[in-house]
Amino acid sequence: MGRLTETLTKSLENVVGEAGLIRDSERMQSYLSDWRNAYRGEAALVVRPASTAEVAEVVRLCAQAGIALVPQGGNTGLCGGSIPDASGDQVVLSLTRMTQIRQVDPGNETITVEAGVILQRLQEAAAEAGRLFPLSLGAEGSCTVGGNLATNAGGTAVLRYGNMRDLTLGVEVVLPDGRIWNGLRGLRKDNTGYDLKQLFIGSEGTLGIITAAVLKLYPAVRSRTTAWVALPSTQAAVDLIGRMRGLCGDRLTGFELMSRQSVEFVLRHVAGCNDPFAEVHPWYVLIELSDTLLDAPLNEMLENGLGEAFEQGEALDAVVAGNETQVAALWKMREGISEAQNHEGPSLKHDISVPVSSIPAFIETADQQLQAAFPGVRIVAYGHVGDGNLHYNISKPVGSEDAPFKAQAEAIMHVIYDVTRAFAGSISAEHGLGQAKREAARRYKDPLDLELMRTLKQALDPAGLMNPGKLL
């Protein structure tokens, strides 16, 4: 790969302007490490184009010079997918200046936005049009649409609305040679060959740079009810979600599972959080029903479902939020887990998925094997039961040192991923592979899967300049 020259730097500056170029080492720092400081690299330059045309010209110039590009959005990822390597030769291409909401089409129930739009701003634009954009996750105040697409983000509403693949009708992509593929079609039916947009969604910038997207909108939510429920087991959670689905259908929009260890960390470290129950329970779920009708009988549905659950021993206790303040307090308990765990020292994060019916057996098996091999580790298990996605994170034993625990990270990972494979699961449900799971993918993905992925990579990016070292 090439090295950045002063001539190329000047050419890039002519494209993006002085405001779009960062050369100063101190100003570049926030682009060179992830928000957890788990991954760090170096870069020759940070380029911040403000339009698709500028992105295309930047890519074209770098391709001609053999300069590798690392696309970056809000830099909120957990797998190091948007961080350059240590060579200092790569160019970070930040899309954070591409913030236009190009079109809201209520008649077609779509919104067209650029890649640098913050997810929360997208949600607000949908609300201003009397609609809902349902993707919701903890980093929504800083993550960008481009990053959400590049990693096929999921979040807490996948149960009802699906992940970014399901929410996307079309994308605009700058290809590795600088050509622009205009796939911004707001069509729900287009049977004219390969669904090319799906190549780029979830590809983590390794096949091209997504610069804009046509996304689905939904009717605004006008009523909802939220409950915090104590459970005796994970099997009770699987039984309860089946019961609630049968009673409520698509009105069931949230069903989040949390272990007691997860909740204890939140109560210890997140200000303003209080245990809804006087007694300690092994597992909890956060249930949310929503409807487009203002006076939908959601409380009645919830009470019916929970009543049956109590009779069957699936639920031990429950509290229903009485107002929006209480709703926010319950969600704060769920959304505070990742932050709270960081206060307990190094956190080994594993974003896995298994069939919903296998969740209880997976947790029991993985817990037993981890405690046998690494006595005293604290297991923080939580996630989206409805789509089989668990965040199965590990904290060090109480009183132990950081360094020995970190040294066990790979061995711990293999235990978890071996159990995941045994239950026909995936080692990455919604965070992507990035650089964190690139090597693990070689071990746990089908060799033919990897061969087909490499074939696509070679076809679209033969020079290997698009986010090299990530995913493959």
From TrEMBL:
The keyword Flavoprotein applies. Pfam families: FAD-oxidase_C, FAD_binding_4. Keywords: FAD, Flavoprotein. Residues 39-220 form the FAD-binding PCMH-type domain. It comes from the Bacteria. The keyword DNA damage does not apply. Belongs to the FAD-binding oxidoreductase/transferase type 4 family. This is FAD-binding oxidoreductase.
